[in-house]
Amino acid sequence: MSMTDLLNAEDIKKAVGAFTADSFDHKKFFQMVGLKKKSADDVKKVFHILDKDKSGFIEEDELGFILKGFSPDARDLSAKETKMLMAAGDKDGDGKIGVDGGLVYHKMILSI
Predict the structure, then answer these.
(1) Contact 89/108 with Cβ under 8 angstroms?
(2) Distances (CA, A) of 87 to 6, 97, 103, 108
(3) Which end of the chain is more exposed for a tag (fewer CB within 10 A), N or C?
(4) 53 annotated ligand-binding residue
C-alpha cells in the first residue's frame, strides 16, 4: 500500500511543497494532506507506511524523513523541526511515537 492509496496525490504534493526549511508546521501539513478527515483505521495505515523499520513505533531518526514517506522527493526535516514534531507526538516521553490500534496516533493527528 502506498500513501496515494490513502491520500490524494495532489494534496500531498501541495503540502510537501508548502514548507521550506525550518518552516514545517505539522498541524497545517496534516490538515493539507487530509489526515484530519481520515478514520482511525486509515491513520493507522499511514502510520505503518511511515514506520520504516516496522517496529510499531516512529523513532526520531525515522521522523526526520517523514515527508519522504508522503513523497519520495520531499526534503528531510531539520533537527529543530524533528524535535518539535516528536514533542507533539511523544506523549509518554520515551522518544518515540507509538500506535495503539491506530487510536493514539489518530488522537495526535486530531489534537494538532
Answers:
(1) yes
(2) 26, 9, 18, 11
(3) N
(4) yes
Q: Is 90 annotated as a binding residue?
A: yes
List the chain pLDDT tens, one digit each, 112 residues. 899 999 999 999 999 999 999 999 988 999 999 988 888 888 889 989 999 999 999 999 999 999 999 999 999 999 999 999 888 888 788 888 887 644 555 556 666 5
CB 85 within 8 A of CB 66: yes
96-98 and 57-59 strand pairing: antiparallel
Residue 61, marked binder:
no
57 is in an annotated binding site: yes
Alpha carbon distance 22, 83 (integer Å): 11
* Domains of the chain with bracketed CATH: 3-111 (1.10.238.10)
DSSP-derived 3-state class of residue 15: helix
92 is in an annotated binding site: yes
pTM: 0.84
Query: Is 111 labeled as ligand-binding?
Result: no
